[in-house]
Amino acid sequence: MYILHGIHDWGSQVIHMALAELGVAYRFNALDFQAGDLATPAFRALNPFGRVPVLETPDGPIFETAAILLYLSERHLALAPAQGSAERAPFLIWFIFVTNSLHPSAMTLLHPERPAGAMVQEVVADATHRALREQLAQLERIAQSAPWWLSPDQPSILSLYLVMLLRWIKAFPAYAAHSIPSADFPALHAIAKGHEERPTIRRILEIEGLTGPALSNPACETANS
Ligand SMILES: N[C@@H](CCC(=O)N[C@@H](CS)C(=O)NCC(=O)O)C(=O)O
After folding, report:
1. What are residue 133's DSSP bridge partners?
2. Does domain 88-207 have CATH number 1.10.760.10?
3. CB distance 51 to ligand 1 below 6 Å
């Protein structure tokens, strides 16, 4: 059985959704950031950086979200085009785009003070907001060409990752004016909606304390304008 170490409504959510979609046996170990659970020697032995998600597997503990997702997909031959198939290369391009470009941009939209300090955080947030919208427009173009791995009805490790990020950038930007509704990108919005309506994903969202349009149109929780 897999053990997923995570925190509800944090980045472990994509692994939680992937495990549920795969239908494999797993246990979720809910950690408490405030209580210092990520800093304990026991958790640092699983991930020396003290971050979630971590997945305990028959091959040992794995950290880094993209590594966990690729591992699961390869081990269970699901949630991604098969190696050697014609769809593998475009899938890999856009999967890595989401993990290496979209995810860092989303994090900077949420925490614009991190790259260069609070003095310049408004400038950083503005620039990131513009860059993120351009990145989403590129992904929208791909989604409109309707590959199965970026579609509303058939989740992939890429689409699951994307819908988690779509939630974050609508709900938690540092400045409310930078909240990005997925509805601005119709094909991406359809994916968020299609995924949140799946009973498997609905159940995971509920376990993580989320109801309503948590992926496609969550309320913006930011007070800052
Ligand atoms: N590159 C890592 C990033 C992991 C990460 O930053 N996780 C956040 C939660 S989404 C975390 O654990 N933060 C705790 C901290 O920074 O102390 C991955 O993709 O797994």
Report:
1. none
2. no
3. yes
Is the per-residue pLDDT at 224 higher than 90?
no
Ligand 1 in contact with 97 (CB < 6 A)? no
Is the minimum distance from the CB of 175 to ligand 1 under 6 angstroms? no
pLDDT in tens, 142-151: 999 999 999 9
Domain with CATH 3.40.30.10 in the chain: 2-76
Separation of CA 146 and ligand 1 centre (Å): 31
Q: Could you tell me the distance, in angstroms and rounded to a whole number, from the CA of residue 41 to the centre of ligand 1?
A: 17
Across the chain, mean pLDDT equals 97
| Residue intervals in the chain for CATH 1.20.1050.10 | 88-207
Mean per-residue pLDDT for 202-210? 98
Q: Is the CB of 111 under 6 A from ligand 1?
A: no
Give yes or no for a contact between 214 and 196, defined as CB atoms under 8 angstroms apart: yes
Minimum-distance ligand 1 atom for the alpha carbon of 99: 19
Instruction: Give pLDDT tens digits for 42-57.
Output: 999 999 999 999 999 9
Matching residue, tokens 């909606």: 193
Find out whether the beta carbon of 190 lies less than 6 Å from any atom of ligand 1.
Answer: no
My answer on whether omega of the bond before 152 falls inside 30° of 0, hence cis, is no
Sign of torsion over alpha carbons 208, 104, 2, 19: positive
- 2-76 topology per CATH: Glutaredoxin (3.40.30)
Q: Give the whole-angstrom CA distance, residue 211 versus residue 104.
A: 26
Under DSSP, is residue 71 helix (H, G, I), strand (E, B) or coil? helix
| Closest atom of ligand 1 relative to the 51 alpha carbon | 12
pLDDT of 225 above 90: no
